[in-house]
Design a protein that fits this description.
The chain is of the alpha/beta class. The protein is built from 12 helices and 7 strands. The protein has a 5-stranded parallel sheet, with helices on both faces. Helix 1 runs antiparallel to helix 10 and helix 5 packs parallel to helix 6. Bound molecules: thiamine diphosphate. Thiamine diphosphate binds next to strand 4. The site of thiamine diphosphate has 16 residues, from strand 4.
Length: about 350
């Protein structure tokens, strides 16, 4: 478990992470408008309770498979904000050393697998990771995020079926923000809850309010406990909403005003402020202090990224393939044809 010194410490840290995520993403949206970001920007504004609540209690060696909208999950998992910003600016110090856009950046040292453009394609990889954990009797979990849009993909179903059959320590987190690009949920599936599909695989399904941080934490704690205890995978569906368009070029005119107002009134951050107030905190004071802290962190991250060099052209050919020496000799079966020529 991540070590929080007390409940007060944890409650305030959770608030800090949600505010940091929002500040970071808002800054990135502004930088995008100034044409300073390389690649697409997919803001998760409004979905902070999902990113923070799903990762807050994970251990460093648990592995997450984030979505394009999960910048906050990466921050909570321990990715350095400066490296994250450098990734967005295409700098040498970024996660993939300036080779690709934000969403493909992973950070294995912090248990973060890089996202893929083919949505849903990371779920089978999460199953592979969970299978390795199980075979090694390693008590960690893989957490794979996906949208309700991606949930209609074939490889998502294959991953869930495989995970259930082999009782793998994986948690599938469906961030149901109601739209896949401009397609509302009702136009791509005939069910209300994606989690209903869990029953078809013989897997536990759970549905929870994704804008309610307390509910996300509780639901994830149950799912992660099941995985660690060897009870297999869980499909967790978190109902949430993205305030911005699919990406920065999308004004999202396909949504009605009433819907936006309704969901904005369920914003996860003021909701957690209410919790903090009921716990006896002076929320005005906490808000002011946290806002200065996170603004400073984002300023520092941006200063680091801007001061970082651009990658050299020849570096484009580095880190593309594992070298043969990265393969553990134990992975080559003794007596096999491969063993005869190992190392190649
Ligand atoms: C396999 C695949 N099909 C289509 C796309 C194009 N595409 C990119 S994002 C997106 C919408 C995804 O919606 P959802 O899975 O609900 O996630 P959200 O963006 O809402 O968080 C689509 C269709 C893609 N990247 N990959």
């Amino acid at each position: 478990m991540r070590s929080f010194t007390s409940r007060v410490d944890r409650d305030l840290k959770l608030y800090h992470w949600m505010k940091l995520t929002r500040e970071f993403e808002d800054r990135v949206s502004r930088l995008h408008a100034q044409n300073r970001i390389l690649g697409g920007v997919y803001s998760g504004r409004g979905q902070e309770a999902v990113a923070v609540g799903c990762c807050a209690d994970l251990e460093p060696a648990d592995v997450i498979f984030p979505l394009h909208r999960d910048l906050g999950a990466m921050l909570v998992k321990g990715v350095d904000p400066g490296r994250l910003m450098a990734q967005l600016l295409g700098k040498e110090t970024g996660l993939s050393r300036g080779k690709d856009s934000f969403l493909h950046g992973g950070d294995p040292a912090h248990g973060v697998f890089g996202g893929t453009s083919m949505l849903g394609a990371t779920l089978p990889v999460a199953c592979g990771t969970a299978l390795a954990m199980k075979l090694r009797r390693d008590p960690h979990v893989a957490v794979a995020f996906f949208g309700e849009g991606a949930s209609s993909r074939g490889d998502v179903h294959e991953a869930m079926n495989f995970a259930a059959v082999h009782a793998l320590p994986v948690v599938f987190v469906c961030e149901n923000n109601r739209y896949a690009y401009s397609t509302p949920q009702a136009l791509q599936m005939a069910i209300e809850d994606v989690a209903d599909r869990a029953a078809a695989y013989g897997m536990k399904g759970m549905v929870s309010g994704g804008n309610d941080l307390g509910a996300v934490l509780e639901t994830m704690a149950r799912a992660v406990r099941r995985a660690r205890e060897g009870l297999g995978p869980t499909l967790v569906e978190l109902k949430t909403y993205r305030y911005r368009g699919h990406s920065e070029h999308d004004p999202a005119r396909y949504r009605g005003e009433e819907e936006l107002i309704q969901w904005t009134s369920r914003d996860p951050i003021p909701r957690w402020e209410t919790y903090l107030a009921l716990r006896g905190h002076d929320v005005e004071k906490v808000r002011g202090e946290t806002e200065s802290e996170v603004a400073q962190l984002v300023d520092d991250a941006l200063a680091f990224a801007e001061a970082s060099p651009d990658p050299e052209p020849q570096e484009a050919l580095e880190d593309l393939y594992a070298t043969p020496l990265d393969v553990a000799p134990s992975a080559v079966p003794a007596g096999s044809e491969a063993a005869a020529s190992y190392p190649p």
